[in-house]
Amino acid sequence: MKVLHTSDWHLGQSFMGKSRQDEHKAFLKWLMQTIEQEKINTLIVAGDIFDTTTPPNYALELYYNFLTKVSSFCKNIIITAGNHDSVATLKAPKQLLRALNVHVITSGDEEEDEIIAIYDEKKLCGIVCAVPFLRDYVVRKSLSAQTMDDKESALSLGIKEHYKSAYKRAKELSKDVPIIATGHLTTLGAKTSESEREIYIGGTLDIDSNFFKDFDYVALGHLHINQRVGCESVRYSGSPIPLSFSESNSQKKVNIVEFSGLDAKVKELDIPLFRKLLVIRGETASVINELENVTDKESWIEVHIKDENPFNANESIRARAKELELTLLAVKIDREQASLNATTFNAISLDELNPLEVFGKRVELESLEDQELTKELLKNFKVVMSEVEAL
Ligand SMILES: [Mn+2]
């Protein structure tokens, strides 16, 4: 059994108003060639296939065209839903895709069989416990009266039970072949980037790599940086393209996993970079100097400025970038400097803020005296935001 593990494609992402269509197209073409060349017989995509619950048509087209072509030479394709995916969107073509050897697991509820047997020439060679992003309603019910802390531990507990039961069912099928688990979650001690959305409100799961030690390989999604967690066989593949400027320096990879007996040997394979994201930091003069030296005009650029007068700096940097025909997507005030001047900090543009911060600024205008009320408003806004995102 030879497995290729990838995740977090985020097809259809609109990045500060820019489409990622060309990059995704190039990635899927590369992936298809890699699967063929490496003679992969099991492809695992561990969640966040699409960026939003209502992906644009071109993203759906990329997805279906890819699956149609790959299924002619890769006999087992396993797609699990992430927190960005709509269960309904992924589920709709489930039966149809089954005819192409594509297994789609969307919610992991009792109606979905997450245990997938992998055959090679009619011989059982592995089992995948295809666990998607586990939504609240699947892992815990009627916990509304409990406190946040209890909710969190109940959630961690529920998720752990879900994996234990999947492992048990896999082991009942065979004791001699490798058992792989998939997951879409944050494990303790893993590296995060700016583009992963918090999955569970205020929740940090009490799940570390040690919990997964029974599985022979764990194919994780959700975090966008390729990494091992704790041991060799528990890994995130990371996203195939940088999804935020904070990922601009991390080499994007897929993991190729080969087994000798139950032992997983993992090779990290570099994905070619199809478009550079560039972060330029410094004082106005040095930023402008660096902009003048950018040779790859296709790059997308974010600037962090250190300047006494950020408003003027913002204007002159944007004007120079325009003359140079560069794509400057955001100008921000250097974070260190921003926090130093916290009391006088004014955002120079919306680039600076996320929706929660915008709401925070709006609440500030009300000059509320009741601190608790302010806290409560922000918390509720966070809950509403996550519910909207989960639609
Ligand atoms: Mn993701």
From TrEMBL:
Q: Ranges for the Calcineurin-like phosphoesterase domain?
A: 1-225
Q: Which GO terms describe its molecular function?
A: 3'-5' exonuclease activity; endonuclease activity
Occurrences of domain Nuclease SbcCD subunit D C-terminal (ranges): 274-365
Q: Give the GO biological process terms.
A: DNA recombination; DNA replication
Role description: SbcCD cleaves DNA hairpin structures. These structures can inhibit DNA replication and are intermediates in certain DNA recombination reactions. The complex acts as a 3'->5' double strand exonuclease that can open hairpins. It also has a 5' single-strand endonuclease activity.
Provide the alphabetized UniProt keywords.
DNA recombination, DNA replication, Endonuclease, Exonuclease, Hydrolase, Nuclease
- What protein name does the entry list? Nuclease SbcCD subunit D
- Signal peptide range equals none
- Coiled-coil spans in chain: none
* Quaternary assembly: Heterodimer of SbcC and SbcD.
Keyword Cytoplasm on entry: no
Family, as annotated: Belongs to the SbcD family.
Q: Which organism is it from?
A: Sulfurimonas hongkongensis
> InterPro entries, from UniProt?
Calcineurin-like_PHP (IPR004843), DNA_Repair-Maintenance_Comp (IPR050535), Metallo-depent_PP-like (IPR029052), Mre11_N (IPR041796), SbcD (IPR004593), SbcD_C (IPR026843)
The family database entries (CDD domains) matched by this protein are listed as: MPP_Mre11_N
Q: Which PANTHER family match?
A: COMPONENT OF ATP-DEPENDENT DSDNA EXONUCLEASE, NUCLEASE SBCCD SUBUNIT D
A Pfam family that this protein carries is: SbcD_C
